[in-house]
Amino acid sequence: MNTPPLQGKRALVTGASRGIGRAVALRLAAAGADVAVLARGTDALDAVAREIKALGRLAVPVTCDVTDPDRLAAAFAESVEGLGGLDTVVNNAGGFYHSGPFLQLTQGDWERTRGLNLDPTVQLLRLAGTELAANGGGSVLNVTSIAGLGGAPRLSLYAVCKAAMVSLTKTLAVEWAAQGIRVNAIAPGWIDTKLTSGFTGHPQVKEALQHEVPQNRWAEPEDVADAAVFLSGDGARLVTGAVLVLDGGLTSQLSAVARGLLGLGRAAA
Fold it and tell me: pTM to 2 decimals?
């Protein structure tokens, strides 16, 4: 019988009550890890914990608003104590409050966006880096977005935070390599979660966005979760500083140019 790839590992996942975080937490547990799950909603968090326990793994649910620095620090300590240590951290909590033209967004919009997407990530990286270094190493995974890899009109504040996460991922991968800590990121494209319900709730909008994706599909949270299992395991022991893009080929094309070339190809045929 094959040993699960994360057998005996201890993982912490933020934003774990729904969407990507929930899928990641369950996949890590299915791969053999004990998991501490952090989120604001206690009821939803307890439901995820029950699913983890049903997989035969230890679950440590910790109610936490990551935008509260004091609560995040306490939640991290509770998680490490409940797990009996730490091997893997998944920075997943995030989202966007406001979108629109940059000049219409306010300083308050920036502070709220940064306070959810970037500040908690920086704080948790400090906490996790100290813990993992003391334990001889481990894995950190930051869930960013393709919005942080290029221009993202009307999502400028969110994109800035995600771009900062990409930069921080690469920087810490170098700084922490000698301590046995690997730091990687996953950058999803269009993914069907509550965060994107404003788009998926309009069939024509969803179809138009999907049409731009070469694979002609939206990603699912489980696509991110499968990648998280790989990057957290020993099979990725030489992978650090990587940004794994999960977008069905969207960012690999120059969309306007690509469409023109495809049109020329069809005409020539």
Answer: 0.89
